Amino acid sequence: MNITTPITREKARSLKAGDMVYITGVIYTARDAAHKRMLENLEKGIALPVDLTDQTIYFAGPAPAKPGEPIGSVGPTTSYRMDAYSPKTIELGLTCMIGKGARNEAVIDAMKKYGAVYIGAVGGAGALLSECVKKCDVVAYDDLGSEAIHRLEVENFPGIVIIDSRGNNLYATEPQKYKK
Amino acid sequence: MREIDVSIITDKIKELCINANCVLNEDVYNAINEANKNEASPIGRNILSQLMENADLAKSKFKPICQDTGMAVIFMEIGQDVHFTGGDLTDAINEGVRRGYTEGYLRKSVVSDPLIRVNTKDNTPAVIHYDIVKGDRVHIEVAPKGFGSENMSRIYMLKPSDGVEGVKAAILDCIEKAGPNPCPPMVIGVGIGGNFELCAKLAKKALLRPIGSHSHKEHIRKMEEELLEKANMLGIGPQGLGGSTTVLGLNIETYATHIAGLPLAVNVSCHVTRHGECTV
Ligand code: SF4
Prior knowledge:
The complex is a heterodimer of chains A (180) and B (280).
Chain A: E1 2-4, H1 9-14, E2 20-29, H2 32-43, E3 56-58, H3 86-91, E4 96-99, H4 105-114, E5 117-120, H5 126-130, E6 133-140, E7 149-163, H6 170-178
Parallel strand pairs in A: 1-2, 2-3, 3-4, 4-5
Antiparallel strand pairs in A: 2-7, 5-7, 6-7
Chain B: E1 2-5, H1 6-22, H2 26-38, H3 42-61, E2 71-79, E3 82-85, H4 89-103, E4 127-133, E5 138-145, H5 147-150, E6 154-158, H6 163-178, E7 186-194, H7 196-208, H8 218-231, E8 247-257, E9 262-269, E10 276-279
Helix pairs in contact in B: 1-4, 2-3, 6-8
Iron/sulfur cluster sits between chains B (66, 68, 146, 148-149, 182-183, 270, 272) and A (75, 123-124).
């Protein structure tokens, strides 16, 4: 299934765990350090560098681009480190997160309450995923290097809906089927 | 006494850092390929094919297999008849890491202080282990290690009464709790014995052994085979989305220990288990 960003709450609610998706449009990278700074700044009254309404955050920190290429390898990082921040970013309007690995109850509750999805990209397939990125610009926190917020224009970025806005979770259901 | 100029070490380390990050070792690649033939889950097979495609692409374009090009872990086996000239050896090693990560377009993922957390911007310092051995050669092993999997590793200070069964249960528990986080299929390095810090080092060393190699100790070899089979029955599967491929390889290293203890370390690694070596 092809989806284009931005993703409305309504569209996020229509996605189901197990859907294979190809994402086209603008997405933003942010890891631990960027999340921490965004939310700490917000507490101090400093606005977010990006309006999160209907946006997608890709938990990733790219490798440097070689000359002539838009970006270096860029696979997902482990998402649970963002569990402390995601309920807040979802409340602020975020509708889609791309990462790898489990999420906690608080994140899933926020996804259900506001309407958001969690999409898994193949962890470790950084070279392959970088081919989907057509343009990359740093939009905030340049001093964080790879952990800065990057604005990516992606085409047919492949992922699979792991947790949907009803709380269906492939990590909970699928391994059981193969456990012996 | 053989003299070796440390600039030679810098050059070797630089090359090994870049190569290890861009070219997946044959043992890991072949293990993914084999697993793909036997994987029960269709999604799992799709993922394993993508992993091979990713490794092929990284090799042909000479770019990192995974964006987490890791913290550089370096094992130096130094012959006792070697005399280093031209500067400080540790500085020379870090200079090799600096050049490799900068010139090779690898990601800089190291912060100078674990609490203040400012990126050093050149991926130094490396984690360096020195061993003095006989002879007049230097053997260098470079193993860049990503932290998605490193964070899932554990140490267990078991009791002697826990025995073999306790060890096996702990290893499987560690793998199960890691679940989808370390980018399965995983590679597992286990260290048993020694003390608190040595078992962890043994576990790391076990990851340097090729997949499919076995301990020369009969009882350990059997344990490696049994645990690999049991780990693949956990159902976690590629990327944790279910399947029969959870662990590609499981290596165990052991050492003598104290009468009162049974230290165990499990170092979790991923399908981008990297390793390069050379002898000077
Ligand atoms: S666990 Fe391995 S494959 Fe996954 S992101 Fe880290 S280094 Fe890459």
